Amino acid sequence: MNKSKQFYKTLPAEVLHEYAEKSGLGYEDPIDLKEFLKFIKSGDSVLEIGCGTGRIGKHLINEKYVGLETNQDYANFFVEKIEEKYKDNIKNIDFLDFKSDQLFDVILLPWTVLWDFSSEEQKEVIKKSLELLNKDGRVIIDNPAKESVYNSVDGYEPNLTYYEDLIDFLDTLNLKKFYKNNYETKVGRLRGLIVLEK
Fold first, then answer.
1. CA distances, 47 to each of 2, 32, 44, 106 (Å)
2. What are the two backbone dihedrals, phi and then psi, of residue 177, each rounded to the nearest 5 degrees?
3. Which of 6, 74, 121, 157 is deepest in the core (most CB within 10 A)?
């Protein structure tokens, strides 16, 4: 198991919320959600990979939202906060093991979820995401920008990959377009949204 994924297996939900606040993303009023909503249209079906405790998903939850989370405690925390009719929309599974007949308009990898996969897995995640997109769908990947800091905690060893590292790979994927939008968090950290349009 990737060391970053192992780190989250032992991190309580409340501490995860503290890390979101420390990074300037916020828990109750997530600044990254405001950026994501620029690319999510009303009525879009959304797959969130690494939905955690629902920091983002609780704002997007509806019959067209599916959240995937490998940490059962986080998934349970999220499920406890939503209406009964949506509880089956939260799945305790790794994205690479996820199977779906449904296609999505938006696939979201928030925070630094992409960094929780190895370099080879990251490419698999991107390819699989594109396969699960509807025509004209979008994959949105959120990471700290290359020139910015990220939360550094003992035991957390993410596999850092930035937009600049992915350009050659993305060039091979026959995308309509791909680009990066930078934004600043509430504590002044710079983040980069990688947007892939099918």
1. 22, 16, 10, 6
2. -165, 160
3. 74
Mean pLDDT by 10 residues, the chain (198 residues): 72 86 89 96 97 96 97 95 96 96 97 94 98 97 90 84 96 96 94 96
DSSP 8-class letter at 183: E
The pLDDT value recorded for residue 3 is 64
Residue 7's domain comprises 3-197
The owner of tokens 């925390």 is: 77
CA-CA distance, 101 to 71, in Å (whole number)? 23
25: amino acid identity, one letter: L
Strands (E) across the chain are located at 46-49, 65-68, 90-91, 104-109, 133-144, 177-184, 190-197
C-alpha–C-alpha distance, residues 145 and 183, integer Å: 9
- On whether the pTM is more than 0.90, the answer is yes
Residue 52 CA: distances (Å) to CA of 12, 139, 168, 181: 11, 18, 30, 23
CATH label of the domain that carries residue 37: 3.40.50.150
Residues contacting 172, CB < 8 A, separation 6+: none
Domain count, the chain: 1
The separation between CA 161 and the C-alpha centre of its own chain, rounded to angstroms, equals 14
Is the distance from CB of 144 to CB of 114 less than 8 angstroms? no
What phi-psi label fits residue 180: left (phi over 0), alpha (psi between -120 and 50 degrees) or beta?
beta
